[in-house]
Amino acid sequence: MPLTLRRSDLLLSANPIAGQWCGAAGGRRFDVTDPASGAVIARVPDGGLVDAIAAVDAAHAAFPAWRATPAKQRAQILKRWNDLILAHQDDLGRLISREQGKPLAEGRGEVAYAASYVEWFAEEATRAYGDVIPAPVAGRRMLAVREPVGVIAAITPWNFPAAMIARKIAPALAAGCTVVAKPAEDTPLTSLALARLAEEAGVPAGVLNLVTASRERAAEVVDVWLADARVRKLTFTGSTPVGRHLARASADTLKKLSLELGGNAPFIVFEDADLDAAVAGLMVSKFRNGGQTCVCPNRIYVHEAVHDAFVDKLCAQVAALQVGPASDPASQIGPMINARAVEKIERHVRDALARGARIATGGARLPQLGGNYFQPTVLTDVTAGMECACEETFGPVAPVTRFSDEAAVVAEANGTPYGLASYFYTRDARRIWRVAEALESGLVGINEGALAAEAAPFGGIKASGYGREGSRYGLEEYMHIKYLCQGGLD
Ligand code: SIN
């Protein structure tokens, strides 16, 4: 089915660098495909070293004027960007769904989610306050002021093609930074459309520069930015191994870093939980985007007293999920992003079954729909050593483990190198505080499965990285503090 947009010029095949829409140096291009069918949707520039340098040159040249632009004016531009994103919600939703695979309703929802970060940081731009510090000696005035860090590099993932880039770029622009960004090779089209709307909103030439690159050439672009001392900050969402590499490679130029990395979220259902609420929370958090989010529950612990009732309720809802292409309005779960993703899900299910887990529902591919579909699945009798309990599955598989003791389940929930999100359901107020404080993660959902919001700090601890996105803390990531001391005033 052809991709039709109300504004066909939002389907872009050029990169915005220094205010020009350009092809890659050397003219190379790569295909962007629809994960539902494998069909080519567009061909975009396959950027490399020359393009990466040009992007930094542009961002560096644009920085002095952008940082000097009054915060209120930057805020007005961001507000216009927010308005334009919402005005084109349908087209952007279609682009997201087509290149990423999520159902259209979710694609549109993601656009609103992305815009909420732009609106939030438009408002925060005017509130980057400093402090007046009481001087310890006479005749001095002491201040701490916030300044933009400079050029920032953003490397964004494919699972939320609009929201992840918005929640990096919006605070950067609000703070007065200029940007070079590389969207994921699977989903560059949404970012290009967002950049076009940013331009229409009044973001000046060179302030926001994008370099698209294929999987093969991505490292060439990123290596340039890592080595360039003019890039003062790197923000990345993706896997922990890549995050570690970026942290090591940023050491020579001592960049400020925000790393939103892998998760392995536990979801604990205590014996006193409202089971219907817990199932509803799990459905939202586990099956959003087909299970392809960093905060998806990956290990579900259910108290033995309610285990069977919970699994029955869960399976009834999981088995009813409609799987199909984004283009079908009835679809609730789309295709996985690519063949590698489906292979990993299949490997996890195979490993779990070989080690004693059982399939309560689902458990197989759906070849009649296409190569990248997997049935929404519930596994039971899952144990700690299984691959699905140790690694993020990133797919629609809910692995359930039975438990009997609070302290033991909290220890097991924390028994992972990761610490992004955790969830638990209970009605006991004392337990709420005990467990919330004991869980080792940056986000904790208490009787709630949908955590993320523009006003909330999003980010992990341990191997899930550091730095926060969204909220008032999200702006600080793009600023440094300068101390001003004036003497001789007595
Ligand atoms: C992610 O998967 O990294 C982001 C999920 C979210 O914003 O809720």
Write structural notes for this entry.
This protein is α/β, with parallel strands linked by helices and 490 residues long. It has helices at residues 49-68, 71-87, 89-100, 104-124, 163-175, 188-201, 218-227, 240-249, 275-287, 307-319, 339-354, 387-390, 406-414, 429-438, 471-476, and strands at 15-17, 20-22, 29-33, 40-45, 131-133, 141-148, 151-155, 178-182, 208-210, 231-237, 256-260, 265-269, 297-303, 358-361, 377-380, 397-403, 418-419, 421-425, 443-446, 461-462, 465-466, 479-486. α2 (71-87) runs antiparallel to α4 (104-124). The chain is globular, with a radius of gyration of 23 Å. 53% of the residues are buried. The structure holds succinic acid (SIN). Succinic acid (SIN) binds at residues 159-160, 163, 237, 260, 293-295, 452.
Beta content: 15-25%
Distance between the termini: 76 Å
- Poorly predicted runs of 5 or more residues: none
Quaternary state of the chains? single chain
Jot down its keywords.
single chain; 490 residues; alpha/beta; seven-stranded mixed β-sheet; six-stranded mixed β-sheet; 15 helices; 22 strands; 38% helix; globular; binds succinic acid
